[in-house]
Amino acid sequence: MTEPDKRKDVFQPSAPSSADEEGKNTRVLVIGPYLATRGPPERSGDHAARDVAARLDEAVGLARAIDLMIVRAMPLGLTAIRPATYLGSGKVEELAGIVKADDIELVVMDCALSPVQQRNLERALGAKVIDRTGLILDIFGRRARTREGSLQVELAHLTYQKSRLVRSWTHLERQRGGFGFLGGPGETQIETDRRLIQERMSRIERDLEQVKRTRALHRESRRRVPYPIIALVGYTNAGKSTLFNRLSAAKVMAEDLLFATLDPTARAIELPHGSKAILSDTVGFISDLPTMLVAAFRATLEDVIEADVLLHVRDVSHGDTEAQASDVETILRELGIDPTNGQRLIEVWNKADLLAPDDRAKLDNLASRRPADLRPVLVSALSGEGMDTLLAAIETRLARGRGIYHVIVEPQAGDVLNWLYEEAEILDRRSDDEGRILLAVRVAEAKQPRLLRRFPGAKRIR
To answer: What PROSITE patterns does this protein map onto (predicted)?
Structure first.
């Protein structure tokens, strides 16, 4: 039995506390303070490319992800951002009236607030205020299950809190482990000075370095197998975990919930011609993902960086699917990955079961007009539709650079035949009049020398 960690300052995920239960009864107002823009956006990922209703709906989804009671959600069109309160004085007065009339306890602002703006809004509205970054951090803090995920979330949250050393709103002041406006990372830490927070951050960074070394050893052991890595990436709630479960027969948490998956999960899968690969599920991306989370979760995303094939899972039934795809591509570029590399990335157009017949026909037509290397695969991870096509596409990508050989195996050489089935892909199998087995096999470049040593007469077909 392993010895329990005796350090009191290490965050350990636990069952919901009284503060978590209180959160379910917290009356919440969600505000979408969106700038009104003129002309086209400067780049495709800009907020101007997004539908206001879809953006507000996403903010509500984030709040519901931690079981908050949404009393009202409303967009606010802004002509400019005010340094003191983000909103204009008239809108602040309007919101103060709503907060009082609806007994609002928490206001969620779907934007990034400075510490000064946050404090000024709290005083003016008479309620606790959090921004998008704080809300996402709270979700991450609740969902992380592994020690690595917990450390990464704590590091990100301390980075965020470093400039916000203020007490939580009085009715939410509770002492418990965890993070977020409902109780974390523990009010005692919020009350400490920056030096103590920095010391804790330094300890976490050292612990994460050890985690990275451990993960590097795991990756090295996988290379020695070696199995190719297939990583799922995509916008949160695009259906990655459902697809992961469908392809691997696993039971990873898959719900209609933003950020249902945070900790990386990997399973072995078998491809159509018998070869194996490692399938890795990863955290979902989102617009305005806090910078500190991108950095903190870089270790988690190392499987993505080193993957042989990336499956970019998109919810094509969502009205904002193009903007979501742009956000994912932006983060991939930040990780040093070219999202236009058709030799490595496959777009998976998921949730085909939710499409109307006309919309489906349009997508089929659009996909068919793309070059073969960039052609997306339309699937339904829920029903299983399109899985054979997707697996074939994955196998085709992995096969690039692999040689195909014609091999003859004597009927009594069962051990050699077994080696071929273990180490190569059997594309074709026949028998001749003498009982010999004639095979067409595809083998990874690293294994080709071993194949030729065992079968000196093997002939490369292509």
So the answer is: G_HFLX
